Amino acid sequence: MTRDEALKLLKRYLKNKNLFNHCLAVEAIMRGVARHFDEDEEEFGLAGLLHDIDYDSTANDLSRHSLVGSEMLAQEGLPPEIVYAVKVHNDAHGLERKSLLDKALYAADPVSGFIVAAALIRPEKKLEVVDVDFLLNRFKEKSFARGARREQMAACEEFGMSLPEFLELSLRSMQAIAPALGL
C-alpha cells in the first residue's frame, strides 16, 4: 500500500481532524525512528499513519481498539508486521511487543499528544518554540497532559533510546511536518 492509498483509507474511517493529525504526527515519529535505526521508513510510516484507523468505531469500547484496526489492515493486505504492530500498540490486550516496529509504535503513540500539548500551552502555539528541556520538565509534571502515559513514552528504552533522545527525535520529526499539523 502506498502512502496516498493509506491516506485515503484513513480519511474513509477517521472523521475527527485532531485524530487524523495525531496519526500524521505518529507517522512522522515512526519515520524518524526508522531513519535513526536504518529501518524501512515506508513500513514504519504506514504503521504510524494507520495505527488508529479503527478509533472512531471503537472509542466507546477501547478493549476492541487495535483488534478491529489490525483486522481492517489485514483485510486491506498490509504486511503482517504492520498488522501486528497496530494490534499490540494497545497494551490492553496483553500481547508481547516483539520487534522494533512494535516497540516504537507503542512509544510514539502517546509522545505525539504530549508534544502537541506542550506546543499548545505556549503563547505561540507552535512546535518551533518547544525544545527538549521544556518537554523533560513537563514530563515530570504528572498533571500535564495526563492522557499521555509516561511509562509508555519511557518504553523507548526497550528499543535502545533514552527518553531525552526519543523526545528530541519525536519533536524534530513533528516539527518537520508542523504546517500539516497546524502547529
From TrEMBL:
Record-linked CDD domains: HDc
InterPro entries xref list: HD/PDEase_dom, HD_domain, HDIG_dom
Organism: Syntrophothermus lipocalidus (strain DSM 12680 / TGB-C1)
Pfam families reported for this sequence: HD
Segments forming domain HD/PDEase: 15-123
Record lineage: Bacteria, Bacillati, Bacillota, Clostridia, Eubacteriales
Highest taxon, organism lineage: Bacteria
Classification via NCBIfam families: HDIG
Name of the protein this chain belongs to: Metal dependent phosphohydrolase
Signal peptide location: none
